[in-house]
Every structure is written in C-alpha cells, then in structure tokens.
Amino acid sequence: MSGSKVSGSAASGDAAPEAERLAAIELDERSIARWSPEIEHERNVAIFDLLEENRFSLVEAACGPYRLNLSLRDATLVLAVTNARGELIEIALSARPLRRVVKDYFLICESYFGAIRGASPGRIEAIDMARRGLHNEGAELLREALGERITVDSNTARRLFTLVCVLHLRG
Asked: Of 71, 104, 116, 148, which sits with the fewest C-beta atoms within 10 Å of its C-beta?
C-alpha cells in the first residue's frame, strides 16, 4: 500500500499499554486528490499526536500494538488494522453518516483560516469555538461507528477524525 507512513512510540507518563495502542499510521494517498499547506500541517500534527498518545484496540482481536492504514474507497472508510501477530483485520464503515459534519467542518475551517489572516481576535475565537464543536461532533460520530469493532478514547477519536477529513478532500 502506498501512503504516508509514520511510526512512533508512546509518550512517557499516561501512555496506553502496548496492547492498546497504535504504533504506526499510514494514509492511502491514492484516496487524496489535494492537500493545502494548512491541511498538510493538520495531518502531520494529528499523526504525531496520535503516535505520542493514543488508546486503540480491536474489541475481538486485542493484540497490539497496531498498525493502521486509512483509506477511502468510494463512500466507504476502510481501516486496515494489522495486529502484533501480523494479522490483517479490515473494517469498512460507510462514510455517509460523517458526510454532513465533514462538509460543515471544511466550511468552518475555511472561515477560520481566512479569519486568522486579519479578523479581530474575538471573531477568530468565535469561529475556532465552532470549529472545535464540529470537530468534537465528528469525533464522537466516528467513535460510535467504530464502537462495536474498535475501542478508542476521545482524544484518539478526535485525531482520527482529522485524518478522515483529510481523506475526504477532492480536487
């Protein structure tokens, strides 16, 4: 699979046990048509933060650390998870339930990136609060969709939602 590959180790302190964490993340770049510098930055930060601290485990096949490949095939989000034994588990989710929040999130992000170039601090803060609210909503929808197959904490769901948004970009 081609894509952006990043590996890392858990941060010290409140790190998840090895069996409950992602150790590597790959995005299928064939799923992506374009990235702006802002989106590239968000993608890099999300991957870095995910690798530093995450809680991720397969419900029925716990055996981490895991390697994750995210891709978008038509209207299906595909999570290809490889466990510590090298077994590949592919989880396919309809992307349709996320479509509205992803679209709204993109719109608010455009407003936010435009605002940081010259709007008042109050306006930037208001747009950023709306952006974070939509991001939280999307992360919770994703967490619920994964719930029967994959267990993630809130911060992991937020970072995964960022990566799902990157996959939704079209030229």
From this structure: 148
